[in-house]
Amino acid sequence: MKKRVVVTGVGVISPVGNTINSMWQNLISCKSGIRTIDSFDISDVSSKIAGSVRMGEDGFDPDDYMTPLEQKKVDKFIIFASAAAKQAWDDSGFANLNDEQKEKTSVIIGSGIGGVSKLYDTSVTLHDEGARRVSPFFIPSVLVNLASGHVAIKYGLKGANYSVVSACASGTHSIGEAFRAIRDGYYDFALAGGAEAAVCKLGVAGFAAARALSTHFNETPEKASRPWDKDRDGFIVGEGAGILALETLESAKSRGAKIYGEIVGYGFSCDAYHITAPDVNALGATASMESALKDADISTDSIDYINAHGTSTPAGDAAEIKAVKNVFKDHAYRLNMSSTKSSMGHLLGAAGAVEAIICLQSLNNNMIPATLNLDNPDDGFDLNLTPNIPQEKKLNYVMSNSFGFGGTNGTLIIKKFS
User: Fold this and answer.
1) Known catalytic residue: 346?
2) Cα 186 from Cα 292, distance rounded (Å)
3) Whole-number pLDDT of residue 160
């Protein structure tokens, strides 16, 4: 018999806030976390802006989560993952789990790229100073699965421990895999999500070389991410982490845990079309949403809001609109969509996890964050895309989409807990 799976803790590090409450308040206040890059030389790169986690005073302080010595041994994506995991751990009350329960707790934290900053820095060191100057911690500092590894070691969690690497769908797929493992009885608890720290010279230059990034709004970064708008010209690379604490409804009730919401559906698919471009007929995205709806055993009319992948790329935005119309038909015009990437940029492998947390907040506040900068919708984008102003709406079911390079697609459906 399948078990019900609920969310009992969350943790988030993002360009618009480093706690769930600060992120949510900034989102519904329509504040942007997209800024001019000032942490490294960007003079020879065409895109000069990013959704960066604000560091220092009143920003993110890694010392709150790892010692300075520990920080030197890892890439920043692991620091972000560890910070969000600690928030979720503390929020959920998992600290009270006994040894037997910890053996039934999995950790699945994905990333699209992993330690790209350490890779770049170490390659420069190798070139300039030679092999003897390469850190003995280099390899474990960049491996994607070491985010999960560090979290599992810190808390003594002995269940499944691995990472999903599926580009920009990594966070969604990680949560979906944890959800299925708990629902099907393999584990009782999980910490799941995604982390990314690709705002570095190599990361930004790489995406810019692929002509994926916005370049027309370098002087006005807060206007650069504009999903579905006629003037959109690419995505804005972002960074951060989102971690969810998941468990069976039975255990959550027995512990008296706070319940944010219930995950009820998970779908996935592959376009099998192109390494970076979406299928022009949107068949993969369509199949992912249909799979999630079938998994949740609900009708299309049940969905009240879609937190869209919505990256602000010309082809990607068009494909998602087509897919939503394919799946929802007339109901597509009754539901709301919005893209919170308009506020924080694209967090790549962390995006789906952070957006799942936003969906939980939307459910519990009956509020849909706005799509910023949607001033002039492109032709055919005639759905309710929640332009520029948050909308109040009674919500029961929400959907979150994530689509990635390689044609990989993932969809979660989350239900208000009752």
Assistant:
1) yes
2) 20
3) 97
